[in-house]
Amino acid sequence: MHIEFDGFLISDDKMLLSVEAVAGFLERSYWAAGRPLEVIEASIRNSLCYGLYHEGRQIGFARAVTDLATMYWLADVFIDEAYRGTGLGKKLVAAVVDSEELCGLTGRLGTKDAHELYRQFGFVLDEGRAMARRPSGV
Length: 138
Known about the structure:
Elements: E1 2-5, E2 8-11, H1 19-28, H2 37-45, E3 48-54, E4 57-66, E5 71-79, H3 88-97, E6 106-109, H4 115-119
């Protein structure tokens, strides 16, 4: 997938990704601060990944963990702080959920503060059914 608009590019080409940019944002996030670089690299290798670029610089990222048949987990969505509030997050999420690989699958995600963003794309709170298991020691 390559979507170009107004000097921006959304692409699922992993060769374009800047692991350093992804790691830098995740270190500043509430959900992944302290995640080791080797874990970030493995998560990119084993997921569908989408980068958002402006003039060749990565300014956004999202990844989907999926079986490509029934469901996906949307994770690590970010927009560089300097570009927030411009609608680019909506464009990135739309590109992901409407992608050929994911558009017919059930999507899941976890968020502490972006419920309104994801509601625009059909995500609903599913309290009472979802459960999580964390690895021991984490």
